[in-house]
Model the fold of this input.
Amino acid sequence: MKVRHVQKRKIGVIGLGVMGKPMAMNILKAGYPLTVWNRTRSKMDDLLAAGASGAESPKEVAEKSEVVITIVTDSPDVEEVVLGPQGVIHGAHPGLVVIDMSTISPTVARKVAEELGKKGVKMLDAPVSGGDVGAKQGTLSIMVGGPEETFKECLPILEVMGKRITYMGPNGMGQTAKLCNQVICALNIQAVCEGLMLGAKAGLNLKKLLGVVTAGAAGSWMLSNLGPKMTERDFRPGFKIRHQQKDLRLVLSFAAELGLPLPGTALVQQMLRAVEAEGLGEKGTQAAVVAMEKLAGRKLTE
Ligand code: NAP
Done:
C-alpha cells in the first residue's frame, strides 16, 4: 500500500508577543514550515533557534507563506502589518490566506478582509480567548469569522493552537463574539476583586475562601487563574490592563453603534482607568485589585 505524505502548508506568523510567540512555537512543534517576523527583532530569537525562518517584513512573510497569521495589538496595528507599505498585501499571491487572531474592531476586520479580497486573498478574523496559559498549552478558544470554506481549510492549523474552535459567520463575526467574551471577562474580574475584598475586610483566610468558592457556583477562569495572583500580588502579565482597556473601548464604541447601554462594562473601564493612573497599565488584569484597594482603604493582604 502506498503511503501518501500530505505536505503541510507553509505558515507565517507576524507578532511574537505574549500570545504570538507560544502560538508560533506550537505551529513549529506540529511540523509546519514556519516564517516569522516581529517589529522588535530580538523577540524572533527563540523561534529562529527552534527552527523557524526569519523575514525582513510582513510582505516577505506573505511571499514565503501560504497562510499568514497576524497577532498584534489593535486595529491600526493590523491595518499597518496587513495593508501598510511593507504589509502582507504586497506579498499577495494566488491561494494566500490571512488569519488575523488579534482582538480588533469588527468593522476594521471587515475592511481588511475587503481590501485583501480585492487581491484575491481570503481572510479569517479568528480572535482567541484563554490567555497566555491557553496559548502555551494550545487550548485556546477561537471564534472565527469569514468564508466558511476557508475556515474548513484552515481548521487543522487552528486546531494546533486551540481546543474549542467555532465558526461564527461572515467576516467580523469572530471579532464580535470576542467583544462579547471581553464584556463577560471584565465584569468577572471586578466580581473577583469585590468578593475577595469583602472576605479580607471581614477577616477571612483568603486562601481557604478561594479554595471553597472556586469549587462552587462562583468558579470561573478568572477566579482560578487571577484570584491567587491577586492575593500573592503577582501582577506580571498575562493579559495587560492596557489591552483590556483597548478591548473595552472597542466594546463600548461597538455597543454605542448598536444603541446598547452596557453599564457594568463602563464601570469596569473606569476602575481600570484608576489602575492605569497608578502607572500599572502594563501589568496583568489581576492588578485591577489595586483600584478596589484604593476604595477599601486597605490592601487585599496585609
Ligand atoms: P503583546 O505581548 O503586547 O504583543 C503585541 C505584539 O504586537 C508584539 O509582537 C508587538 O511588536 C506587535 N505589534 C503591535 N503593534 C504593532 C505594529 N504597529 N506593527 C508591528 N507589530 C506590532 O500582546 P499580546 O498579549 O500578545 O496580545 C496580542 C493580541 O492578542 C491583542 O490583540 C490582545 O488583545 C489579544 N489577546 C491577548 C490575550 C492575553 O492574555 N495576552 C488573550 C487573548 C487575546 P513589538 O514586540 O515590536 O512591540
